Structure formats: C-alpha cells, structure tokens
C-alpha cells in the first residue's frame, strides 16, 4: 500500500514509476505551468506528464531545471501525437520532443492514440527508441485490448504502461484485467472526470467521513486499485491537496463501492472511434 507520493510501481522492465504525477494537459501559460511544475516538485511529486500536442514540453523542461531537483530524480513522460504517427515520422517527432524538453532521454514515451493503420508501425519506432536507450520505458495511451493484441502479434516488446481515461464512472474493469494479465500498468488520465464526480453521493459521504475533499477520495481510490494517476492542476494549493492522500486508507468495501459506480461513461474520445478528423487535425 502506497504511503508516500514518491512510492512507486515497477514496470515490466524493472523501471520504477511514481504512483502519482502531475498532468499538464493544455497548460500553455508559461507562468501557470512553471508554478504547477515547481510546486509539484516542491511537494514531493516526481512524475511530470506532458505530450507534444500540449505545446508545453519546452516550458516543462525549463520548469524542471528551475526547480533544482536533479533530472535523474524526476520521471518525465511525453507522447507522440496522431499526426506524427508512422515509423519515420515518430522518430522525428521524438527528436523534436527531446529538443523541446532540452533532455537527452525521457523516462516514458507513449503513443497518444491508436490511430487506425499506423499504430503498429509507430510502436516499432518506439521499440527502436527504447533499444537505443533514449526512453527508459515505452507504452501506449487510450489502447483497448484489441489494439494491444495487434502490437503483441506484430512486435517484439510489449507496452509497459497504458494511460487511459479512468475514474469511478469509467473503471474499465475488462481493460484493467487484460493489462494486469500482461503486466501492463494502467495509468489514469482525467482521474477526477474534470470535476464532474464531486457531487456523487458516495464520494461526498466518504469525503465527510475522512475529512477529505472529493478529489482526494477519488485519487486515493486510484492508488488503492493499483493504478498510477496524473491529476492536472494549475493551482499551487490544489497541487498540494491532490498529493495529500497518503495518510488515510479507504476500506476494501469502500474501494469496491466506488468501483461499482462504473457507468462506462467517458468525458474524452472513444478509442475505437478515433480518426485524425476526430481531433480536428
């Protein structure tokens, strides 16, 4: 059971990833971004999750340097965007991400979405990046079991992590079971359903019981279900609050009750229905 924000999960290749990180989705204001990243590192976070499409890799790299925390102590994730997929284009996009971050390597490189017809070739590029030691681990985002099976069938290395929309209204039990069976860590994006779960009666009841915010209850559920989580915030106080979930424990019954809130309800895109046009690209 995780007792600290710096506690880790161990990926299939032995690389350790913190149980919680900071997401910086759409955070393009340089001042806000720097505040969020430096505050997170000050409060003990050691994982920062960005992506090329967020257009803030450069700012993340600058903020990490400014924090004074050694690079080797920070787990940095970025992702290849949909329009950059394909073998050669992915290799080029990765070089561009490293240049923007001003780093020699990343800790985790992900395929952002399973673009039809290209994600297998994209994965082969990630294998090359991994074998060259420029990414300590590689994985995917928003992949369903059949997408993962395509990679298993065609490639040499299994994804080590699958970052997906995961919250009590989208607990994804089948996907979670599949990933666990193949030693793929599940990681939660939008773990708070963009604030749309804060009036859920069960969450409010547990919030009152433990003297915690609804967000803290949900993030604690993430950790206790064995999922890595990357809540986004630009507020220094909210960053601190989100990370303060390691001094209380939900009961097994409460974890099960929260999981039972699952409605298969998304706030993001359906991975089985995405195309380049889906994202306005």
TrEMBL record:
Keywords: NADP, Oxidoreductase. The keyword Aminoacyl-tRNA synthetase does not apply. It holds the Pfam family Aldo_ket_red. It comes from the Bacteria. Substrate binds at residue 112. Residues 24-262 form the NADP-dependent oxidoreductase domain. The active site is at residue 54. One of its GO terms (molecular function) is oxidoreductase activity, acting on the CH-OH group of donors, NAD or NADP as acceptor. The keyword Methyltransferase does not apply. The record marks 79 as: Lowers pKa of active site Tyr. Belongs to the aldo/keto reductase family. This is Aldo/keto reductase. It comes from Lacicoccus alkaliphilus DSM 16010.
